Amino acid sequence: MASIVLIACLAILGLIIAIALFLAGGYLWWRHKRSQLQFIEPNEDEESSSYSLRAAQDIVDSGNPPTKPQVPVTHAITTPLQNNINRKLNGFLSLRTPLIGGSGASQTKPQIISSLGNPGDGTTKDSANKSISMTDMYLDSTDPSENVGQIHFSLEYDFQNTTLILKVLQGKELPAKDLSGTSDPYVRVTLLPDKKHRLETKIKRRTLNPRWNETFYFEGFPIQKLQSRVLHLHVFDYDRFSRDDSIGEVFLPLCQVDFAGKQSFWKALKPPAKDKCGELLSSLCYHPSNSILTLTLIKARNLKAKDINGKSDPYVKVWLQFGDKRVEKRKTPIFTCTLNPVFNESFSFNVPWEKIRECSLDVMVMDFDNIGRNELIGRILLAGKNGSGASETKHWQDMISKPRQTVVQWHRLKPE
Q1: Which parts of the sequence belong to the C2 domain (predicted)?
Q2: Does 55 map to a domain?
Q3: Residue 61 scores a pLDDT above 70
C-alpha cells in the first residue's frame, strides 16, 4: 500500500514538473517573440498615417538606381498579395510615431525635395526648417576623437509607396572588442526622434570587416515627414554573457539626402561619449551700444540621472566672472523629474565693451535635493580665451564678431 502511495506521489510530482517546464518554455518563447515584434494597437485619436517597419531577409545589392522617382524600386511592395506574403515571412510591425513639431504631410503627387528646399514652395521651406531643428538636436559636427571604423549603407525612396529603403551593406576596420582580437558586430537602426522602436541586423561572428547586406523598409513615410527624421546607425559588439559593447555610431539627418536617386554613403563611426552628463542648448548676444550681455538657456537633453527614480530635478546656476573673481549670480527655476528640461530663461549682464574679452560665464547644471546638498550634473565655461572646450570658446568669439546677433549652439556638459 505504501509503495502505491509513493508511486502516485512521484507521478503527480513528475506531472507538476512537466507542466512547469512547459509553461517556462512557453513564457521564454513569448518573451523572445515579443522582443522582436512589439505590436501596438493604434488609437483612433492618434495620427492615422503611422509608419511601418519591416526587416527583410539578407539580399545582395543589385541593379542601378532609378533615375526617376516615379519608377517603383526593385524590392518595393506593389500588390496586396505580395504584401500579405511578406507579412507572413518577415513579420509586420506598425508603430505609432506622430510627426514632431509639424502638421500632417500631403500624400498626393510625389515631389523631390532637396535639403535646402524650393524657394518658391512654402511647404518645402517649412519642412527644411523642421529638419534643421532636428539636425541641431542630434548631429554632432565634431571630428571623431579616435578611429573606430567606417560603415557603408545606401538610401533610396519609393515615391509610389512612400517607403524609405535602407540597405546596411558592410563595415570596415572596426576595433577588436573580444580577447580573440575580433568582434561580433551588428547594427542597430533607429529613425530619431523615435528611440523606442528599433531594428537590428544579424550578428557577424569574429570579423572586423563585416558584410551584412540587409535591407530595411520604413513604410508609410511621406517625403515631407521623412525630412524631419534623423537616421541613427549604431554598431555594437555582441557579447553572450555580458552587455553588448558599443563600437561607434552615425547620425544622418534625412533632410540632407537627395532622394531623386539611390544614394550610397561611407561614414566614419564616432565612438560613444564617455562620462555623458548631457547637453545644453544656449544662446549668446552682446549689444555694444548699451553694454548688455544676454545669455539664454533654452533647453537641455539627456542629462545624467542623479535620483533613485532614474531622473533628476535640474536647474541652472550662472556666474559672471572677471578672471577668477565671481561678480554676479543667476538661477533658473527647478524642473522636477526630467532629464530633458526646457528652461527658456534669459539673463542679462552689464559688461563694458573693453572687458567683454576678459569676462566669462560659468554655467552649472545642478540637481536639486530636498535632503542633502545639491549635486552638479555638468558644467561649461563660456569664455573668449580659456573656455571649457573648443565649442565654448568659438561660441564666445562668434558672439563678439556678430554684435547684436543671437548665436545659438549646443554644448556638451563636462563632469567637473
Answers
A1: 147-267, 276-411
A2: no
A3: no
